[in-house]
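Notes continue from the previous slide.

Worked example: a multi-chain complex. Inputs as given:
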Amino acid sequence: MPILECRELSKRFGKTAALDNVSLKLEPGRVIGLLGPNGSGKTTLIKLCNGLLTPSEGEILIDGEAPGPKTKAIVSYLSDKEYLPDWMSTRQLMDFFEDFYQDFDRQRAEEMLLRLGLDEKQKVKTMSKGTREKVQLILVMSRRAKLYLLDEPIGGVDPATRDYILDTIIRNYNPEAAVLISTHLIADVEQVLDEVIFIQNGQILLQSDVDSIREEKGMSVDQYFREVFKC
Amino acid sequence: MEWNFRNDLPIYSQLVEQIKRGIVSGAFAPGERLSSVREMATEAGVNPNTMQRALQELERQGLVYSQRTAGRFVTEDTQTIEDSKRALAREQTEAFRKAMETLGYDRAEIVALLQEEA
Amino acid sequence: MLSKLLKQEFRATGRIMLPVLAALLLLSVLGNFSIRMMDQNVTNNAVLRFLFVFLIIVFVLGMFAAVLMTLLLMITRFYRNLLKDEGYLMHTLPVSVHGLVWSKLIVSLVWFVVTGLVVTAILFLTGLIQSGTNLGELMMEFPSWAEIREAMAEAGFRGSDITVFLLELLALVGFFATCLHFYAAMAMGHMFNKDKILLSIVFFVVISFALSMMTSLLAFRIDSLELYVAEFDSAQVLGFMNRLLRFSLIVELIQGALLYFATTLSLRRGLNLA
């Protein structure tokens, strides 16, 4: 059974359609890139999947259920916003995650923090942007979720942080879980992906294996993407 | 081990190629236990499924074998490794010869050139 | 899950309200000291006298400010935690919208009541201290609840228990309805892509208007003739009071329920975090 399924999904804001009749399926054990230019509907799709938006038409099934408290328990979401309350320390945030998410693996989070030499007592308020992003990622990736939705995790971070993020995604690979990564920086993530979805103007242009594209087109997904989205 | 990927080939086949080179060059010794798929994937910075697929291909080719509990090992059969090395060498030689031929050298001239170099 | 949300909400608000209450207690000590000093004309030093007057003013304003703070916090917590960036965290927790709203309502109520009690206690103690009354003596003289009820009954106000109960219930429902008025306006304003705050204010005004219309329409239902009974006894007054309270309670309950529905529906179906 797919972990995520969208059926003829549309989302309109006023007259503009942010998402237009999207149907797709994601299988567990896969790392999938959601690739498209800015404003193509990537964030809208992810927000719909975790219940931050309600579809105008169509439906979304996560592990067979419409988004709600039940699906939120198995979806781990990294927003492109800085959404952690700034008065909390990393330790308090871990308490918080432990309280609300049964699948939160505190030991794993503590190991990752230690590896980066981050202080658990530091408050979000006093963290640099990079540290905040790392703490968010650690919290999100320390859950043993069935579906990870990572919205632009590598947008605007320095190369070292980007490598750390990709490394963390590979390291935490779980054959029962799917990871969806939205980005417009394809060259950086290409190697860690099984599969890519191209999205443009709210429509899915293609869903394919990375190696199939390379094999058939004789070029990287990044090069192919540039060709498809040529202006 | 240094991992480099070209854009025009599937990542999977490049992994097969690079691990094979590692084996024939001795970077992975015969009978050596390989790290887990996840570790190798992390090290190479690639998707674990792709790494898994590459290792399965190497298994099929007899360069690697897996034991249910202990993990994956480089073959102890030096003959297989030698054959692989031979095959790789042949590919390289062939490619070299073709490149030289496009420059207008014939077989004898190529051999002479090589001897001069040495 | 509600208990976990409450725990988190108390943590988030406690770090503001506990210092506020502590400051209030400190102010009350300083204020009382200043009142005593001024009262007894201890000094003629202009600077010191100014300081004392200043402290008394701050003390009085501080009590208002503390109560106001609980209301302000009620609004800002809902806004910042559920409608701004923190909403990305809160709305992806495996909890229902009802849990989110109720945790905010309950915690707001608790701080409002606690602050109210603290202010009342401070005023009471200030009165005692400044009048030089001994607390022990006062307690002795203070009538017990049973005595009050007896006195009420003698005066003809039989059944005043229910009146007190209705008053308390009305205060509770009224408080929730007031919170939900703000919540509904903000939740509705934030369904739109632009001008979210402006629209929230517009919705607040529109809702106020709708609610008062509704109250006036419903008020026709109550038999107001009773007001003009020329000769009424205490029992009649009490009966009328109870009817009025029950009516108000029903109105507040209906309005509260509607506002609750508007709030949760807007959050569930119309959430549109920037």
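Summary box: Residues 2-39 of chain C form the longest helix (38 residues). Chain C has a mean pLDDT of 88.
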